[in-house]
Amino acid sequence: MNFSSDEKRINDTFAEINLGELKKNYNIIKKRAGKRNKNGVKICSIVKANAYGHGMNEIAKALAGYGTEYLGTADYSESMILRKYLNNFSLNIPILCLGLLTENRKFFNDIAEGNIDVTIADYKIALYLNNFAKSRNKKINIQLQIDSGINRIGFGFKDGYEAIKKLTGLENLKIKGIYSHYATSEKPRNSYALRQLNDFKSFVREVENNLVKIELKHISNSGGILNYNDPFFNMARPGISLYGYYPDRKKSTEDIGLTPVMTFKSKVSFIKDLDKNQSISYGRKYFTKRRTKIASIPAGYGDGYPRLLTNKSKVQINGKFYNTVGTVCMDWIMADIGNNSGVNINDEVILFGKDYPADRLSDITGTIPYEITCNISSRVQRVYVSR
Ligand SMILES: Cc1ncc(COP(=O)(O)O)c(C=O)c1O
To answer: Are strands 333-336 and 235-236 parallel, antiparallel or unpaired?
Structure first.
């Protein structure tokens, strides 16, 4: 057996990641985010959670190539992995870590060396960081997170204002940005989102008038870019839209032409002839309605295909849709292909993608497309294509 060529073989079940679609989505979002701002809007592309399952390193490198000004991560472990990877290509693009730094100094050194902007939501942490930066004769960029209503993390307006007063005195920290995050931006014309937007804007104006000018001001995620574009802000933080999905397909009114980047693919592994009234899979949750053929496909909840899709989803084989039947197993799903489909062993199966997007699956399971793509598990190979 030739092991080296075997190693390069693509597994039967894999996620095809189309960088051509990523680029298209990025350009649509960049244009859309800057629509009302004559100086344009910088993009902080969110690549946390393994780029929503698409593979953080490859996606970040591609986005850097398309011109994203920042990359957004969830924590410092992700940030360091990403920095190390990008260093291999001499890509010194700044990373904004959206997660919180703790008193644990584990990451301080890497932050100081790594062009990583630190989210600050606590003055004490800023003080530690400043002291560290001073001891190394470094200046570290920080971005202040202000909680305008999601009630998750961030300074409130009052304590934020007082903290900024003190932060301006910390010489080894540069207040590079200030940002907030919406709770309901996926809904257009939503009064809570409008309140967040206006309150945050007033707050930043007050800070800039009385305390310090701040280079980067941002609040929009994908929903914000689609529904609450405001020229006051000069950066935006899209995530899901880059990967081709709307934050809420049912409520967002406008289709701006995004295309799913991930196609989850597998192959027909086995075809079985069954008589009428034969049960399929664990728990006998499905019985054949007639004599038929059942195709077994080597993908299951172990790959991130939700078990809640049992008897509810479709798969696409040779351009035609077939119902999945029987309980989704850890490693297998089955589809009823009927008697005259012409489907053969090794035919490609599409579990979701352009023609059957992940938001169809998330509608069935009562979740959001974010969760479907994020949950594609680590055993699923990511295969990058550009077309
Ligand atoms: C702080 C922050 N900004 C931006 C985003 C990107 O949001 P979306 O994927 O809805 O565009 C997220 C995602 O959870 C986030 O937590």
So the answer is: unpaired
